[in-house]
Amino acid sequence: MKLKRNTRLAALCALAVSGALTLGACGSDDNSGSGSSTGSATGTSASDTAASQDIKCAGKGELRGSGSSAQKNAVDKWVNDFQAACKDVTVNYQATGSGAGIQTFLQGNTAFAGTDTALTSDEVEKSKKVCKDGQAIDLPMLGGPIAVGYNVKGVDKLVLDADTLAKIFDGRITTWNDDAIKKLNSGADLPDTKIQPISRSDESGTTDNFTKYLSAAAPDAWKYKASKKWPVEGGQSADGSSGVASQVKQTDGAISYFELSYATANDIKAVSLDTGASSPVEATSENATKALAAAKVTGTGKDLSLELDYKTTAEGAYPITLVTYEVVCDKGNKSDSLDALKSFLTYTSSEKGQSELKNLGYAELPSDIADKVRSTVKSLS
């Protein structure tokens, strides 16, 4: 019975979203710095055992990281697999949000940071104080659709386009039976319920990617610059992906943006996008991968930051897709955590590590990009 309980707990830890489940052994995704991905992985499932066979352990002690809440559900699974194989390493990942994670890394307090937006030139310059004889680089590790989740009673399917989304989040479309929404949803019984847009209150790579999409795909309707900080004054907000998802679930008329895994875990319906393709595109892992396939590496040297096409009209390509990066030093990583860092990132970027993502609502890296990541991880020093 003990083995069954432990196996069940390990599976729950990999899939739990803070707010949906409260498990003391899993850590929480509250984006306040109190949540972490740690564990002893006392029980192993068949999939854990298979993953363990693909992991080459190195290093010992605690490996600390923080940042993106978008990747937390994936990190939970990776940590569970990794620690089942590597008993001498404890991975502690705090889901504090992309902005906070980068700042913590630049202060020298973590071995890596998770971020949903690539480093700025100013952040790279600051990193040279932490990365001795080197600098911080972006390593793409996973992709995923940013779902536009909504809670409107009686509306099970909803199609929106970029212009309409921009006007909704800017407060210029205020009821769900607005003519612009009716036009995109012929035959739907749309209520006169007030629209309740909910944004992230913390600095977030998810916000940055969502506003990049609005800026690129609806330039006439969205007049704000892309930013990690929500640019529209007023309105409702919540902290972290789990916070906004929870608020949408309990607010009639609400709409917000968060990673697909949070929509799935909270049973929140997601908008399909009219991109100009022959039919509306759903937010799915497969459709996000189609969008990632067109991404271009724009980083220099060992930096592998990507440029996405938010205006794509390709069939089945879901354009509101983010890439989560792990930020590390190319040179000058701390000697006491370097081996564990390389071992962990070697697994997360491996074919096995990437194959775990689909079931969690994420998108795998295209094979050519994944190969570049693995090669760069090997070269870290």
TrEMBL record:
Known Pfam families for this protein? PBP_like_2
Q: Which InterPro entries match?
A: ABC_phos-bd_PstS, PBP_domain, Phosphate-bind_PstS
Report keywords, A-Z.
Phosphate transport, Signal, Transport
Q: Which residues form the PBP domain?
A: 59-351
- What is the annotated signal peptide range for this record? 1-25
Return the PANTHER family for the record: PHOSPHATE-BINDING PROTEIN PSTS
Identify its protein family: Belongs to the PstS family.
- Give the protein's recorded name: Phosphate-binding protein
Tell me which species this is from: Streptomyces polyrhachis
Print the organism lineage: Bacteria, Bacillati, Actinomycetota, Actinomycetes, Kitasatosporales
The gene designation is pstS
